[in-house]
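ESCALATION

Customer reports they have been waiting on this structure for their group meeting. Please prioritize. Original submission:
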Amino acid sequence: MARGILWIVLMVCALLLAGCSSHPPSAAQFMNARNGINFVAGGAVRTGDLDNRKIPGRDDESVSYEEGYWNTDLALSFATPYGVVALDLEDYTYRTIMGGRSRYFGVQGWYGFAADDRGDDVSSRMRHMGGVMFVEQYPVSENFKVGISEHISRNSYRVIDDPGCCTFNKLYPEVYSEFGAGAYVVYKGFSAEFRYGREIGAPNNRFYFQLNYAFFLKEWNYSK
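Update from on-call: job pushed to the front of the queue and completed.
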């Protein structure tokens, strides 16, 4: 229990450093979180039509689009046989994940936000991301499972606006919408997942490969 509380404190502290990277979370770990408290660590690499460019301006001014080629992912989940609530960090971007599941089917939704340094007030300085995912799973055995997923989401990545000498950089998220599908395999706490995403409104295709491992912290006993 103490370890679970520690991870909650760490995630709340990391929330204060909220970043700008947000993509769909793991379908495999959502479907296979054990009854109780789980800590999931992993990451994803991506390729395709990624936005990694630097636009120079006058003098030493520049704007850098940094979608990147990888990200880390940490999550603390609270699971029952029929539902999951999780606190998740993709790099330094906080998200809340909630959903329902059975042995064969599940649906999860997620919501997160990132600060936009260009705004003049609190409401204009926040950008919102999230999505919904449907999952279908087949348990080959108790430890080995395979599944597929379909999602629609509002994703984001970081942009750095460097005004030049003697001025602080401005950070803000570049936001886009995406739909796609994926497939995964799970063995005990380990999962490997491939996902394809198509940007809505632009001919951009992205490909993701995600690896995660779940550490089981505490089981909930309903008979007590």
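Sent to customer with the following note: The radius of gyration is 19 Å.
Escalation resolved.
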